[in-house]
Amino acid sequence: MNINRILGLDVGTKTIGIAIGYVRSELSEPLFTLRRQSVKKDTVRILEVCRQQVIDHVVVGLPLQLDGTEGRSAKLARQIGSAIAADGSYDVSYCDERFSTIEASRRLR
Question: Which of 55, 74, 85, 108 has the fewest Cβ atoms within 10 angstroms?
């Protein structure tokens, strides 16, 4: 499978940050923030975006606890990821985002 365009999701309790990543250039850009409604409604909207943006793969940020365990936020993220995968149109993977803010700050410097 050739993956060129990735949809990245940052799932929170009130919003979902949605970004698109381009494999070849290793760049990404934010698309928009989705206000949470329900897993079902949020999934329908995310799948629409996947089709509109010709997405090849979906990556869901997994906000693990510092000790690596999953708390409430990680469970919410998995619910969205599982619902997208259940549609059968897109493969979904998860990315540990525990230190993503630190890494982003480091790269910006």
Answer: 108
